[in-house]
# Entry
Amino acid sequence: MSTNENSGTLGGNGVDVSKTTKARGHKDHGREENPTLELFSGFIKLHVLHHASERPVYGLWLIEELEEHGYRVSPGTLYPLLHSMEEAEMLKSYNELYAGKIRRYYKITPAGRRLLKQAKLQIIELMSEMLTKEEFDRLRSSLKELTT
Ligand SMILES: [Zn+2]
# Structure
């Protein structure tokens, strides 16, 4: 778990959401808390929705993809997220045989597509508030085509 001292893959700029700590609560047996994950899980889910909107995706591929974008996500973090997205009917999973092994793929649902579209608008809204006007204007011109 925390034996990995090599945090160089993310160049120090990434977000490690793979660590979970046992909840300190008394009755919450087995529940895990990670404030970083709680904050970024929405971003991670949006990554997943975005890619699932292009083609079916699977866990290992997503872990590598997310790492490229600065999120270190362990399977133990990702799969519950995928599961909750399927429960919420944003994704639908199915099994397929790949190289002699069963691989679980996730594809986006129509409801997931609608949420993704809403999310794009909300991302722009959030960025418009967080970035300076100059930063935002530069981004807005490149993002315009996404929302039309
Ligand atoms: Zn991505």
Helices lie at 35-54, 59-68, 75-87, 110-130, 133-147. Strands lie at 15-16, 21-22, 32-33, 57-58, 71-72, 91-98, 101-108. The longest strand covers residues 91-98. The chain has five helices and seven strands.
